Records
---
Amino acid sequence: MTSRIALFSSVAILAAAPVLGQSTHSWGERNTDFEPAMENQFRAELLSSDVQVERTTVAGGLVHPWGIEVLPNDGGYLVTERAGNLRHIAADGTMSDPISGLPEIAVAEQGGLLDVALGPNFADDRMIYWTYAKPVDGNYATAAGRGVLSEDLTEITDAEDIFVQSPAVDAPMHFGSRIVFDGNGHAFVTTGEHFTQEYRVMAQDLDNHFGKVVRINLDGSIPEDNPFVGDDSAMDEIFSYGHRNIQGAWMMGDQLWTIEHGPKGGDELNLTEAGKNYGWPVISYGEQYSGDAIGTGISQQDGMEQPVYFWDPVIAPAGMMVYEAEAFGDWNGDLFISSLYPGGIVRLEMEDGVVTGEERLAPDLGRVRDLAVDSDGSILAVTDFEDGQLVRLAPANTDS
């Protein structure tokens, strides 16, 4: 296999005060003056854990990396590039040529190859899943596919789509899109509403896949217990609706949690439940980029769900994960969110589904698109730049 070697460094990058947290963080000026609907919904206690870390660059030279997945048995990492490539990166930073066998991908604006995930039965069938912008007769749609990853990590065979957003449209923006599994034979795929004033209102309609979470079986068929099965006015795949642009999703036990971009203010963390309407673009804690109101300028309405937590100003949330390891023992069970703006990582402490504290970490990383936990408990982050990196954050050795 022909490979190219990425630039990598085993030298820790430590500040003079070697901590990951940023104790000097301040909230910044709000864009709107909406009152939270409930306690602990906005601006939880600011935390500073002062954790000492060692930061290493595992690999560089990635073109707008979007998703990362950790392979079992210390087999390295799968990383997507929005430019349309799926690569294998070994633990020593060796980066493969693009893995072959993916379908045609529409690389335009926010579209391209997006998420990647190991299937629930990967150990037996080597099935991987991905999401991407699919070209459809000159238009664009969020799609999810799957295929078999070869043992030598060079190709995908038996590639097939298991979901294609409908309708396809001419706006290459707001694709979503994460794919996660519930452990019961279902996949959840998140979408966006393609951004424009014309398309965003479709997030409220059930005859399309815009601004939705869809729930499908692993082969793309429809679960019989989906909330709108049997409703002739609705698409059977729909699980929830009224979303803007969901780029983060995680299963916490049997609960699906998602995080979505707001406009100017109003990023949301949601407990996402079957059949429920999450309000966009009727209600929002943000405003138009022009400063005008969203809809009629309200943040609450009967029949529409409130976010568990929201941000103003934004964090521009992308990937999310729950930290479940012991390397950073005090963070076990905390929710981590990658931030595109102002950048870095956001850590949330939660108790019984309520956010009780927030910390801003490693802001100098800039645009962080996705996160993962390695087998040793270190945190992996990919940075979304033309010359993006895979970075490792591990506890610093303070014995010397």
---
Amino acid sequence: MSKLNGDGKPSEAVASLPVMTQLEMALRFLKLGAIGFGGGVAVIALMEQECVQRRQCVETEEFLHGVGLGQILGPFAVNTAIFIGYRMFGLGGALLAQVAFLAPSVLLVIVLSWLYFSFNQIPSLQSALAGLAPVVIALILSAAWSMGRKSVKSTVAIALLLGAVLGSLARINPVWILVIAGAIGYLLKLGKPRPPAQTAHGLLTLPLSMQVLPHQPLAMLTMVSGLATVGWITLAIVFLKVGFIFFGGGFVLIPVLHQQLVTELGWLTPQQFIDGVAISQLTPGPMAVLATFTGYRVAGIPGALVATVALFLPATLLMWGISHFYQNLRHVTAAKDFLAGVNPAVVGLILAAAIALAPGALHWDRPLSLVLGAVALVLLTRLKWHPAFVLAIGALTGTLAPSWV
């Protein structure tokens, strides 16, 4: 095994570290990509066990830096895989680790997308998806709760969160919502000093102020059978733009994609978007594989691959640069006051996305959908159940009691 320093040259490896070939590294990340259900922190825990404790691919300090820096842009679990691959084998290792890590999820989403769009009229599949919908709402709410507990700790923060919810529901451009929230945080000096070890972790909620794209004329494309005739270049441009503003990862991406894919472009219906989120959660990969689902809807398997590559490309290039100049980027300074105002607004945007999606998932005339959503929320937030198990309960409930969900 060869480890690289900040200039991209091999550094002195600890003699006791086991030797690992590029093929062995690829197989390790392929396994992590296949079993890492839950994404995010759950995958990071598995990665730490495999790459630090068992195989000693990188040292503990390096791993923590990779996780922290990986949260700047895009899904941080994928970025951490890129970081480790680069530190071990340079640019080729980074690309190999990323592809191996993402391959199981992308392939599974393509298969599920084919089943969904080919056979979604089959009653059993429709019933299962109906049961998944309330659980998806619970997943989004649980993510908002988890983030809110860390960033909403004052009266001002609560006000910023509520303001973001109301502003989003009123269709105010989220760019302005977040810029205003950040300005308030800066003016009121809301940021608090943090221990140095937590500085990089604080990048988890870097500003989303650029995460919503301006209105695109693409929605005016000629419609055929209710869906725009979209070329691969158009598909790539849309997801490339989202990739450039993909800060935070995970459920933070939902309001961005919902506005772009449902509200502005009409590539997905609200129900298809909910089902796409559910399908992405049934895979071991990141939430960003929702791009694969959308790409398949627009242009089949080639569209799925184009959308996936375009979404991940900006973060990939950034992580290559970060990994190359790692030694010079160990200390990151953030605008804490501005981010302290933005963070509650981010939570508000996620809550607003859940509220916007709820009418398609929760129905007063089908009380079981309400009960299922409430039970799922308790299982996720209080009992800390794995999302895959909760989604399985939703699908099973929908299949067994389709007229009640």
---
Amino acid sequence: MKNPAPAERRAPLKNAILIAGPTASGKSRLALALAERSGGRIVNADSMQVYATLERITARPDRAARDRAPHHLYGHVDPARAYSTGAWLRDVAALVDRFGVDGAPFIFVGGTGLYFRALEGGLSDMPDIPAAVRRRWRDRLAREGSAALHDELAARDPASAARLAPADGQRIVRALEIFDHTGRPIGDWQARRAPAIVEPDTLRRFVLEVDRATLTRRIDARFDDMMASGALEEVSALVARDLDPDLPAMKAIGVPELSAALAGATTLEDAVSRAKTATRRYAKRQATWFRNQLDSSWTKIAPDVRVDRIFTPPI
């Protein structure tokens, strides 16, 4: 792979709308209402909703919603692939190249904070690493231990090795796999900033805030709906593929829990209970991240806000 070149520059997308918030807070419903009012396109900004097979277990918009407005980057990634923020950003750039000229606003909606940061040029432009390369280094970590791989990193990329403790196996492996695949130190890639895709001066940012009791009720009711509409069958189909358990899709909330029930390691009732608990904990982490990472340019709104109160067409 060639040395990293400067990230491609394109005219930033105007009049984009960002909708963030914890899971089950009503983001998709609001995005659909905004799309219908504005004639806009909805773009997924949730790192689990990108995966094929997992439609119900990740609460992707259903067919009825997709028929009411254009939806993009939902279910387009095979679960056998470890999809990255960089890959998502490149997919977004391709959408902008294809549809950005028609004037319809892009409505980015989801709960993955790094995706929103990437849109505004806030992340390094890191390369995607082939699964075989990732697997090789993770296998070596399991066999040889982090100290041995730290020694190897010191021989290949001394600057990165000097920044990492010999016990920090995950970061050591990350640095090694990047050097292995690209021939360049991870520091070279970290210094490259991906360009902003959205224009900040015309950007509208909204973050949904829901009180904890209401969010808990929503989470529990939604998971019950997932189970009634085929979530267990989805997980069964995923398990049948015998994929690497370390793949992101295999860690989607509900997948490990329902997999355990399918394997007979627990009851279905217990699996559902544990999945609901995991979802509540995840929502709490999301809310904390948004509270600490999103600045005052983000408007806090309630899930039942009237669309005409937060959106008027740009002049």
